[in-house]
């Protein structure tokens, strides 16, 4: 049976794939922390404007404020800084495969603390999907590929650790937000609150006058526009779709379906790099499509 929240999770994956493509230049220009600071501030302003218009703010009551605040602090503030710091070091392809492990973290959290279960068909689909994502990304590079996005910067182990931290924070953010979304909170209002908390944490960090919080280079109007657009696609739209999917879907299943973004990224990288993915990427893509279809038809 096709369940609507499945398609919301896949829509989020598409948003994240496009977002990762449009984040590389401004993130490397500003630095991970400065980039995420401007990104989350622009998203918070946009979302509150929409929530004021739709009236979604009325669904925010005292019982959901703290869970959503912690979800924003971990999932957006810590998670996004770690993610873009990892992407700056590893490039979007390598970072994508490591970040996809958030589906595993989410499934474990859901089964352990929320009593979520998966049938045999869902488990088979999940294994195919995650295996396909890993295969597509790990085997998706040509041996002679020398594009700047395929080179790692700094210590590889640091980039790997940051990507895994980002995946864990993404899983924790969704897990903490699940009860609030199940209670019927408007997803745009929830995203706005989470983004506001993350933005406040960013400016508190900046107030400490730490060197790592400062921009690496001046924020030109062009860079700020790229950052705002990236935030709207990846966080404003993508994360709102995930929160809406969590209203009725299991944390683990929503995470698994939204983890296909690295495979959706392959055709975008093809356009950017001017070269078709390696054969391993096609094999992984086929596995991911088969796994996703198995889940959707469960």
Task: Please name the defining characteristics of this protein.
single chain, 0% strand, 298 residues, 78% helix, mainly alpha
> Structural class of the helix and strand makeup?
mainly alpha
Average pLDDT confidence is 86
Number of helices: 11
Which regions have little confidence, pLDDT < 50, spanning 5+ residues?
none
Number of strands: 0
User: What percent of residues are in strands?
Assistant: under 5%
CA distance, first residue to last residue: 6 Å
Sheet having the most strands? none
Set down the secondary structure blueprint.
Layout: H1 4-30, H2 32-54, H3 62-99, H4 102-113, H5 120-138, H6 156-182, H7 187-207, H8 221-246, H9 251-258, H10 261-273, H11 279-296
Helix pairs in contact: 1-2, 1-3, 1-8, 1-9, 1-10, 2-3, 2-7, 2-8, 3-5, 3-6, 3-7, 4-6, 4-9, 5-10, 5-11, 6-8, 7-8
Overview of the molecule:
The chain has 298 residues and is mainly α. The protein has one domain. Helix content is 78%, strand content 0%. It is built from 11 helices and no strands. It has helices at residues 4-30, 32-54, 62-99, 102-113, 120-138, 156-182, 187-207, 221-246, 251-258, 261-273, 279-296. α4 runs antiparallel to α9. The longest helix is centred in the N-terminal third of the chain and has 38 residues, at 62-99. The chain is globular, with a radius of gyration of 18 Å. The relative contact order is 0.25. The model has no long low-confidence stretch (mean pLDDT 86).
């Amino acid at each position: 049976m096709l369940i609507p929240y499945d398609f919301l999770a896949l829509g989020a994956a598409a948003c994240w794939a496009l977002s990762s493509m449009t984040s590389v230049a401004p993130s490397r220009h500003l630095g991970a922390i400065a980039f995420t600071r401007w990104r989350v501030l622009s998203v918070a302003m946009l979302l509150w404007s929409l929530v004021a218009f739709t009236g979604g703010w009325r669904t925010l009551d005292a019982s959901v404020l703290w869970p959503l605040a912690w979800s924003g602090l971990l999932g957006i503030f810590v998670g996004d800084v770690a993610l873009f710091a990892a992407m700056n070091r590893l490039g979007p392809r390598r970072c994508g495969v490591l970040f996809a492990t958030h589906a595993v973290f989410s499934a474990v959290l859901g089964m352990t603390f929320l009593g979520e279960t998966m049938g045999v068909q869902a488990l088979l689909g999940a294994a195919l999907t995650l295996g396909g994502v890993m295969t597509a990304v790990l085997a998706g590079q040509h041996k002679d590929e020398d594009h700047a996005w395929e080179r790692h910067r700094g210590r590889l182990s640091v980039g790997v650790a940051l990507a895994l931290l980002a995946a864990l924070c993404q899983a924790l953010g969704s897990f903490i937000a699940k009860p609030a979304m199940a209670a019927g909170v408007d997803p745009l209002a929830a995203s706005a609150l989470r983004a506001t908390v993350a933005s406040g944490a960013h400016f508190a960090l900046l107030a400490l006058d730490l060197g790592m919080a400062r921009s690496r280079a001046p924020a030109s109007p062009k860079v700020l526009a790229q950052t705002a657009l990236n935030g709207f696609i990846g966080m404003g739209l993508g994360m709102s779709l995930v929160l809406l999917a969590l209203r009725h879907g299991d944390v683990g299943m929503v995470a698994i379906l939204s983890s296909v973004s690295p495979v959706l990224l392959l055709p975008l990288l093809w356009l950017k790099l001017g070269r078709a993915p390696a054969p391993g990427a096609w094999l992984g893509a086929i596995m991911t499509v088969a796994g996703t279809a198995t889940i959707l038809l469960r």
